[in-house]
Amino acid sequence: MLSNSIKFVFEDKIKEIKNPDPNETILNLIRLRLKKTGTKEGCAEGGCGACTVVVGELKKDKIIYNAINSCIAFTTSLEGKQLLIVEDLIKKDGSLHPVQSAMVNFHGSQCGFCTPGFIMSLFAMYKNKTSYDKKTIEESISGNLCRCTGYRPIIDAAKSLDKNKADQFKKNEKKTISLLKKIRPKNICINNESKKYFAPRTIDELKKIIKKNENAEFISGGTDMSLIVTKQKKDIKNMIYLNSIDELNYIKENDKYIEVGGTTPLIKFEFIIKKYYPDFNRILKRYGSVQIRNVATLAGNIATASPIGDSLPLLLSLDASITIEDFKKKTVIPLKEFFIGYRKTMLKKGQFIRSIRIPVFKKNIFKAYKISKRIDDDISSVCASFNLTIVNKKIKNIKIAYGGMAATPKRAFYCEKMLLNSNFSEDIIVKAQKSLEKDFQPIDDMRASKNYRIEIAKNLLTKCFAEIKNNKLIRLSY
Ligand SMILES: Cc1cc2nc3c(=O)[nH]c(=O)nc-3n(C[C@H](O)[C@H](O)[C@H](O)COP(=O)(O)OP(=O)(O)OC[C@H]3O[C@@H](n4cnc5c(N)ncnc54)[C@H](O)[C@@H]3O)c2cc1C
Ligand code: FES
Ligand code: FES
Predict the structure, then answer these.
(1) Per-residue model confidence (pLDDT) at position 130
(2) Which one of 95, 335, 370, 450 has the minimum C-beta count within 10 Å?
(3) Ligand 2 nearest-atom number relative to CA 72
(4) CB atoms < 10 A from the CB of 251, how many?
(5) Which pLDDT belongs to residue 375?
(6) In the predicted model, is pLDDT for residue 478 greater than 70?
(7) What's the rounded Cα separation, in Å, for the pair 420 and 154?
(8) Index of the ligand 1 atom closest to the CA of residue 226
(9) Is the pTM of this model over 0.85?
(10) What is the mean pLDDT of the chain?
(11) Which ligand sits closest to the CA of 326?
């Protein structure tokens, strides 16, 4: 069944929006159409958290609450979900939600501009987590910036929360679930003033749409795509939203590989990959924020092909491959062949990334490092990843990849050649450092100078060597 209207739960009712503008953000919907001004606009690019709202989704008869940045999510993505904004937290009798009371009691707000965003991030934490330790709190608010209060009172407020007290949403849960169930999942097709939007729910439906709309652009989490609208002030004329295809939201694990479906959010992936490659998880914990990772995908990071896409050097050193598909056929490509120029890939019109396959190397040492100006919510200047085995003090099977060092994320083949079959000694590391100059001729830009990049690349190799030699992590945060 095809529909051109979006239905979602808002204020305990099903709200229907007929033929919405596919480029309207949820933030604009809230402020301009619903006339609720608690949710703020700061950066309009997902970086400050002032616009944070919570989206409830029904998963196996349970509502999962995800904080998202409403400034970079489109209204259309609300189909079948519950939208919760800061105004919804206050009870009908005017009393505050426990998260709001805690912020008042611990003086967590000064000018108040960031406060609704913090409240919504903490509300999602309150609903989803079983304990509120410092690590959980800091991660939950890593995507929220406050320029005046400072974070300690906010963290103290969060620590004071009592998990065991049921809030109004718990008490109302049955009603919300029945409302969510009433919105039957549909394939969406919108045509609004020459802007087209499709949201298929199955791969078969997706292929039918691609066949007739080969020039349409894919959108998953939209954390890169939406900036075309919010920052470049352009329209996306024809898009296919992939994140409502449940068949593509999966992680398959076996002895040989981990397979990640195209629409799997990073937050789900980071939990699984931790078992195999803890450093992959550590990098993802510093990837954007919880709001970003709740919707952003590995496939989106790969297709964007940014030279500083954080997952890319890691996937390259792990020899990952991707399955791409169009309406006719499926092809498997090693990732090392996929990036062909600055933000250019082998993807042709109508081809989508169906899945990513990451080999499981049980005996290997895997290390990854991200260098950025801030620890949280910042893009890399340089990212490095090392995947190797050491047998009888000799290096075997080494794969090294860097981001931020060339027009594409890239393997360091000269450096690998220098190290392969060598003794794992300081002398050889010095020579291998030098060989990185053959692998990379980085550029100066706003994030780092070329000299800084090459020095950092060399230092990260030394760091990897030192960590392996001393069998300990040398990290600022882990
Ligand atoms: C505030 C903020 C912080 C960020 N921090 C980081 C960071 O720390 N590290 C980092 O690497 N990135 C970061 N990003 C960039 C972005 O979040 C990632 O690149 C993300 O993984 C993109 O995934 P997405 O699902 O949101 O992609 P989308 O925005 O939906 O799409 C991105 C591109 O991929 C294409 N695409 C999406 N899915 C598919 C598919 N299945 N098949 C084919 N093409 C597809 C789209 O057409 C588009 O060209 C950040 C972005 C923001 C806004
Ligand atoms: S307005 Fe800054 S994250 Fe949305
Ligand atoms: S209270 Fe002013 S920005 Fe946070």
Answers:
(1) 86
(2) 95
(3) 4
(4) 15
(5) 86
(6) no
(7) 50
(8) 29
(9) yes
(10) 96
(11) 1
Ligand 3, atom nearest to 147 Cα: 3
Q: How far is CA 235 from CA 51, 72, 78, 323, in A?
A: 21, 13, 19, 29
* Helix/strand/coil for 195: strand
Instruction: Count Cα atoms within 13 angstroms, Cβ side, for 146.
Output: 21
Distance CA 82, CA 59 (A): 12
Q: What is the Cα–Cα distance from 418 to 76, expressed in whole angstroms?
A: 52
**Token pair of 2 as six digits:** 């095809």
- Tell me the sheet residues that pair with 396: 389
Angle, helices 98-105/115-128, rounded to nearest 10 degrees: 130
Lookup: tokens for 112? 């108040």
List the beta strands (DSSP E) in 149-297: 187-192, 195-199, 217-219, 238-241, 251-253, 257-261
Contacts of 386 (CB under 8 A, 6+ apart): 317, 365, 366, 367, 368, 398, 399, 400, 461, 464
Residue list, ligand 3 pocket, CB within 6 Å: 109-115, 146-149
Are 145 and 114 contacting, i.e. CB atoms less than 8 angstroms apart?
Answer: yes
**Nearest atom of ligand 1 to the alpha carbon of 286:** 8
Q: Is 43 in the pocket of ligand 2 (CB under 6 A)?
A: yes
Read off the DSSP letter of residue 433. Answer: H
User: Which amino acid would we find at residue 437?
Assistant: E
pLDDT bin (cut points 50, 70, 90) of residue 166 is confident
CA 432 to ligand 1 centroid distance, Å: 33
Q: Are 244 and 185 in contact (CB under 8 A)?
A: yes
Q: In testing the pocket of ligand 3, which one of 104, 114, 121, 155 has its CB within 8 Å of the most ligand atoms?
A: 114
- Residue 317 CA to residue 15 CA, distance in Å, equals 47
Place of tokens 């295809």: 245
What's 310's DSSP letter?
A: T
Q: Which of 26, 43, 74, 142 to mutate to test the pocket of ligand 2 (most atoms within 8 A of CB)?
A: 43
Q: Atom 8 in ligand 1: which residue has the minimum CA distance?
A: 287
Q: How is residue 25 annotated by DSSP? A: B
| Per-residue pLDDT, 476 | 75
Pocket test for ligand 2, best of 28, 29, 54, 71 (most atoms within 8 A of CB): 71
| 182 Cα distance to chain centroid | 30
What was the pLDDT predicted at 426?
92
